[in-house]
Amino acid sequence: MYCMKEIKVDDSVIQEAQNLVDNVYAPLKNFTNEKDFWSIAKNMRLSDGQVWAMPILLDLSEKEREENSNESFIISNESGDVFIIDNPQYFEVDRNLAAKLLYGTNDLEHPGVYRFMNLKKYFVSGELKKISNREYKVKKINYKTPDQIKEIFKNNGWRNIVSFQTRNPPHRSHEFIQKKSLAEVDGLLVHPIVGEKKKGDIKDEFILGAYAILIDNYYDSKSVELATFHTYMRYAGPRDAVFHALVRRNFGCTHMIIGRDHAGVGNYYGSYDAQNQFDKFSEEELGIKILKHNNVAYCKKCFDMVPDGDCVHSNDDKVHLSGTELRSKLEKNEDIPNTFMRTEVVNYLRENNDIFVK
Ligand SMILES: [Zn+2]
């Protein structure tokens, strides 16, 4: 049928190809080329000036390139998803420099940097085409394409929609921020990232399950949609914030919630870096309005959820658990206050085994 060389790639690469085809990464249609790579890294724009924050990469080894003799080739995965790369253009980048520009660090302890540094030798651009009409085979939980999501918004009669990005089960603070944002618009899209994550994060299916329970019990279901964005976590903090916002614009959202330390990891980024990053761009060129929120916590003296700085009480009066503390309390069956996480959500997480990424 096709006499091209076929290269087996990871599901995560096929997933990126499918995202390109689905217009999740519009205006990108192809894996990032060398010129755009450096333009994105240095200016957070494509070489034609449009805002874009993270390169979308296809990586191949030296051996795979040699076997290809620089001709068009096919990428596929074990499930049989198949894409063609026509007119491939190969390039190498100075990984240390690129990591510093993209992630603000080249420290291998940073999970996004570690992943980037360990990609195969060459990056490849070219014209991407999907050649099978077969359904995408990689298990995609609760995924809808941008076109499908926009259709749902239209049918719901929503004109203004706010999106919430997450990789965690819902805390009370998330619920508070979502509901506060929802008051300004017609609908809320809860849109967790599903894909490769770091050790200790909660597995995707349980984040979705936890949200389903929260929405069932505490939300007006007529104003919320729950769907997923399938990609690997980059943990690129401020840059990820822009990337996440542009992707949600492509899913038809008009507003995006950006909290403090969005998509951060460890202490690599300042609390306000992600929010401040948006000052570099006009709302018009982003195509989505950013709703910036402070951290929120339950205040034991106010008996209420309170954004940072909105009451006079100290940090000691606030209920907060770190990700590590939450994990430890879940595993040891210790009390988790319902002022931090709804009891129904806690019970759901406890009822399930093996909920953490190893
Ligand atoms: Zn207070």
Q: Could you explain the architecture of this structure?
A:
This protein has 358 residues and is an alpha/beta fold. The protein has 2 domains: 5-130, Sulfate adenylyltransferase (Roll), CATH 3.10.400.10; 146-351, 3-Layer(aba) Sandwich (Rossmann fold), CATH 3.40.50.620. The protein is built from 13 helices and 14 strands. The strands form 3 sheets. Strands 6, 7, 8, 9, 10 and 11 form a 6-stranded parallel β-sheet that branches. The chain has a 5-stranded mixed β-sheet with strand order 1-3-4-5-2. β12 (296-299) and β13 form a beta hairpin. α4 (95-103) runs antiparallel to α5 and α8 packs antiparallel against α13 (343-351). The longest helix has 15 residues, at 204-218. It starts with a strand and ends in a 7-residue tail after the last helix. The mean pLDDT is 93. It binds zinc ion (ZN). Zinc ion binds at residues 299, 301-302, 306, 311, 313, 317.
Provide a compact summary of the structure:
The protein has 358 residues and is α/β, with parallel strands linked by helices. It is built from 13 helices and 14 strands. The chain is globular, with a radius of gyration of 21 Å.
